[in-house]
Design brief:
- The complex is a heterodimer of chains A (290) and B (279).
- Chain A has 14 helices and no strands.
- With 290 residues, chain A is mainly alpha-helical.
- Chain A has a single domain, classed as MetI-like (MetI-like fold, Orthogonal Bundle), CATH 1.10.3720.
- The longest helix of chain A has 33 residues.
- In chain A, 44% of the residues are buried.
- With 279 residues, chain B is mainly α.
- Chain B folds into 2 domains: 58 residues; 168 residues, MetI-like fold (Orthogonal Bundle), CATH 1.10.3720.
- Classes of the chains: A mainly alpha (290), B mainly alpha (279).
- The interface between A and B is large, with 91 and 89 residues.
């Protein structure tokens, strides 16, 4: 009787396996194969081995895009988590404003990246909100063509990303703060541990799991960023905000270099998997040591 | 201890609260600015871009409304989002039941295969998916795009549901089995009702992703009548040439349905977004 029951239960898996296998696992496997062909997307394709990957290694556009992608991710991960942690640690000590402000901080997370990019395109414009605000407080000398200058464009795009997800990082840190054992914090207060001392020796170690989650999530999210550079700069000026995702999109759907674009998407997968698993295992190791 | 440092500390605390409020204000300032500008006339904005509104107008909204074909595109987005959510919930919860209750080796292997999907960016499968959709005649169809979203979100759903079902004590199901209740009926009468809270958490997370997505509908839907809000906004409005009085209302209209949901389901949304962290 239990045997038959188990067989029926196993059948529950069928729809999931069909959908997931056909629309996720199969494309993944086919992508790996296509990246080693000269396919243009049509039925005719020859196997060319590692040729696409060799071309990639000497393609300065790809090397630059890989560098921009990683730099962008580092800027976003560091700034977003530092800001999120700062907000969370201050909110934790201020019960009266905690709930309201943390919800308010989360609102940018709700809007779509396209819409966020729309708003910020104008804020970054030469006659837009940021320069206007700088003028208003008498810092006219800091006015800048934020998205039009190769030295600031990538950081400006990253700023939009940080603006959108700081509330998210903050919410995760805050949840970790709220689960700290009250006795421990009270004991620390009795011992006279305050301010920075209390943060470094008690809170920071207890925040380790939240830090792991936050860093891993923001790293994966920022490595596969697409809408922000697409709408804000479309890779420009002079290719200074060209990311791997933009290159994949252009090669696959617009360049007649289909297989090359697929190979680039494999490079993106490898980058995401290597960097995120390295970071999360390093952080997990750190958690265990603390 | 003297009273002096305590007072000083209280002062620092108060100052921190003020700074905190200012910092948060800085984060919502772009929103407030967007709303204010949307309600002004183009001439008024041109006169003083950062000034307070002198005149109020809703004309900008009606212009943006027709420019991004808001009525049709919102209905399309709503249809795609809700049907994908239904499919993810049904297929995901059904699959999670055996994965949580059967402890043999193959079950763990299948579970791992699903979890693998959480770290695969859409970009990696988009090109082969395009070929597959073309060969299956599913390009430009709601069915195709819903199947894609189901597959993309199944890993999170399986993760959520499996860990939740594992936390349900199996005694109830064992009793049902002894009473002759089959696996199918057990699932529907005992397990499914218990999944309600985890489903609402999962769905806020999933629907947010689908509603806001650009790439999948941009690639797989070409028929202008089937396009979503984000695709229309992206392809019909060039933010670099358009006036903020056109741009901002369009952005607000795109966010509006989600903001309404957020206000009504604030608690679940916050829970859903933090739960997405475990992903």
């Amino acid at each position: 009787m239990f045997h038959r029951r188990r067989a029926t239960m196993a059948a529950f898996l069928l729809p999931a396996i069909v959908v997931y296998g056909l629309f996720m696992l199969y494309p993944l496997a086919r992508g790996l194969y296509l990246s080693m062909t000269d396919s243009l997307g049509g039925p005719m394709a020859d196997f060319v081995g590692a040729k696409n990957y060799q071309t990639m290694a000497s393609d300065s556009e790809v090397v630059a895009a890989l560098w921009h992608t990683v730099l962008y991710a580092v800027v976003v991960v560091v700034a977003q988590n530092a800001l999120g942690l700062l907000f969370a640690s201050m909110l934790f000590r201020r019960a009266r404003v905690r709930k309201l402000l943390s919800v308010v901080l989360l609102t940018p997370t709700l809007i779509s990246p396209v819409m966020a990019a729309f708003i910020w395109t104008y804020l970054f414009a030469p006659d837009g909100g940021i320069n206007g605000l700088l003028d208003a407080v008498g810092l006219h000398s800091l006015d800048h063509v934020w998205l039009g200058d190769t030295s600031t464009a990538l950081y400006s795009v990253a700023a939009v990303n940080i603006w959108m997800f700081t509330g998210y990082s903050c919410a995760i840190f805050l949840a970790s703060y709220m689960s700290m054992p009250a006795e421990l914090l009270e004991a620390a207060a009795l011992d006279g541990a305050t301010g920075w001392r209390r943060f470094t020796s008690i809170e920071w170690p207890l925040l380790a799991p939240a830090l792991t989650v936050n860093v891993t999530l923001s790293l994966i999210g920022s490595l596969k960023v697409f809408e922000f550079p697409l709408v804000l700069t479309n890779g420009g000026p002079a290719g200074s905000t060209e990311t791997l995702t933009l290159l994949v999109y252009r090669n696959v759907f617009g360049g007649g270099k289909f297989a090359y674009g697929v190979a680039l998407s494999v490079l993106l997968l490898v980058t995401v998997v290597v960097l995120s698993s390295a970071t999360s295992s390093l952080l997990r190791l750190r958690e265990r040591r603390i | 201890m003297t009273a002096y440092p305590r007072q000083l500390r209280r002062l620092a605390h108060g100052l921190g609260t003020v700074l905190l409020c200012l910092g948060t204000l800085l984060f919502v300032l772009p929103f407030l600015f967007t709303v204010a500008t949307s309600l002004r006339t183009a001439a008024d904005v041109a006169r003083s871009p950062l000034g307070l509104p002198h005149t109020f107008t809703l004309k900008n909204f009606s212009a943006a409304f027709s420019q991004i074909q808001y009525g049709t595109s919102t209905l399309n987005t709503l249809l795609i989002t809700s049907l994908s959510c239904v499919a993810v919930t049904a297929v995901g919860s059904l699959a999670a039941y055996p994965l949580a209750r059967i402890t043999q080796g193959w079950s763990t292997a299948v579970y791992r295969l699903f979890i693998l999907g959480t770290s695969v960016p859409v970009f990696v499968v988009i090109a082969p998916l395009y070929l597959l959709m073309r060969d299956m005649n599913l390009l430009d169809s709601y069915a195709g795009i819903i199947l894609i979203y189901t597959a993309l979100n199944l890993p999170v759903a399986v993760f959520f549901y499996t860990s939740f079902i594992r936390s349900i004590p199996p005694e109830l199901e064992e009793a049902a089995a002894i009473d002759g209740c089959g696996a199918f009926r057990t699932f529907f009468t005992i397990i499914l009702p218990l999944l309600r809270p985890v489903t609402s958490t999962l769905l806020t997370f999933v629907s947010l992703q689908i509603w806001n997505d650009l790439l999948v509908p941009l690639v797989f839907l070409q028929d202008p009548g089937k396009r979503t809000v984000m695709v229309n906004a992206y392809s019909l409005i060039d933010p670099h040439t358009v006036q903020p009085t056109t741009l901002f209302p369009a952005a607000l209209l795109g966010v509006l349905p989600l903001l309404v949901i957020f206000i009504f389901f604030q608690r679940q949304v916050v829970a859903g977004m933090s739960a997405g962290a475990v992903k």
